[in-house]
Amino acid sequence: MELFRSFNISASALTAEKLRVDTVASNLANMQTTRTAAGGPYKRKTVVFSERLDQVRQMPPRFRGQGVRVSAVVDDPNPPRQEYDQEHPDANEAGFVSYPNIELAKEMTDLITASRSYEANTTAINTAKSLYLKTLEIGRG
Amino acid sequence: MRINPYVVSLPAAVKEEKKESTSAVFGDLYRDALHKVNQQQIEAGIATKGLITGEVEDLHHVMIASEKARLSLQLTVQVTNKIIEAYKEITRMQI
């Protein structure tokens, strides 16, 4: 319903931010992972967002924002971190182990940003809701 | 959502009222709006059921669906109140 467009926009953002939190969680869980299905250590994942548009008029074309969409989850291209550990079963001939290129501080910052964005979008929903409720009070009493 | 059966049976009542007080176009409009509101209620019910059974992955979809249902119901109540008020106003008119 057109009335709930602000809800739908914020809902798409909530979905996107939740995926970002999930990605950070996956990165944190795999900080020490040296084996993956693709071979080699786990690669840090990042999400790419894109704007979601809705065509409202054909000629001339006019678009309206419909929220956000996750267009891709991409691997971080940075090389893995090398650490000397001869005992490790995945160590190479020189005794180095390739660990995922994940930095804890970076992931925590990402996590905080994602959770704050989620909260902001929840606030947007609540504000829209209270505006509607206030509108219903017009003419009462 | 106990409300659904009542709303489904409502269009008949609206029809009767329509004959006396309002035009056919308005009655249809109102009935369509009621159906839309009922649809929101049904969607909220489905979402809640999905949450309970563990089918829904995103919690916020359930919350937003139920909020939409709540808001549209409140809007309907307001509109209905206005209609009844107008109807009463007309019946009180002295001839």
List keywords for this structure.
heterodimer, A: 141 residues, alpha+beta, two-stranded antiparallel sheet, two-stranded antiparallel ribbon, 2 helices, 4 strands, B: 95 residues, mainly alpha, 85% helix
What can you tell me about this protein's structure?
The complex is a heterodimer of chains A (141) and B (95). Chain A is of the alpha+beta class and 141 residues long. Chain A has one domain (2-136). Chain A has 2 helices and 4 strands. Chain A has helices spanning 5-29, 104-136, and strands at residues 45-57, 62-75, 81-84, 96-99. In chain A, the strands form 2 sheets. In chain A, strands 1-2 form a two-stranded antiparallel sheet. In chain A, α1 runs antiparallel to α2 (104-136). The longest helix of chain A is centred in the last third of the chain and has 33 residues, at 104-136. The two termini of chain A are 28 Å apart. Chain B is mainly alpha-helical. Chain B has one domain (3-91). Helices cover 85% and strands 0% of the residues of chain B. Chain B is built from 3 helices and no strands. Chain B has helices spanning 3-20, 24-53, 59-91. The chains are: A alpha+beta (141), B mainly alpha (95). The A-B interface holds A 1, 3-4, 7, 11, 14-15, 18, 122, 125, 129, 132-133, 136, 139-140 and B 36, 40, 58, 60-61, 64, 67-68, 71-72, 74-75, 78, 82.
